[in-house]
Write a structure and sequence with these properties.
mainly beta; three-stranded antiparallel sheet; metal ion binding; Dup_hybrid_motif; LECT2; zinc; disulfide bond
Length: about 130
Amino acid sequence: MAKFGQLCSENSSNRRRTEDNWGQGQYGASRTDHVHEGIDIVCNDGATVYAPFDVKLSGKVTVYTNPKKAAINDGINLSGEGLCFKLFYVKPDSYSGVVKKGQRIGTLLPMQSVYPGITSHICTFTLM
């Protein structure tokens, strides 16, 4: 099983998002029309996002089709440690290449501009 290193510059323990006015951040949490299939890791808007282990960057992720959410509609496909996964709400420095554990991947996008009062976070979505 892969052990994630620090994902966000301001959250060395990868503390998970708990409940706020917008819902909960754990895997399986209820959403309006689906079940949450990711895990939300607390991260402040504009914070640096790091590679949790040595990863290969494999292209852009489009999170939403709603133009009202354009400010946070970015992310990246990654693979490493036997996993394929996505990071949502991250503006990556690059969409391809290799990044070593602890190196910068990008910046957390401004979640507060779309979801005022939410606990800003990175959403990790793992594909087995």
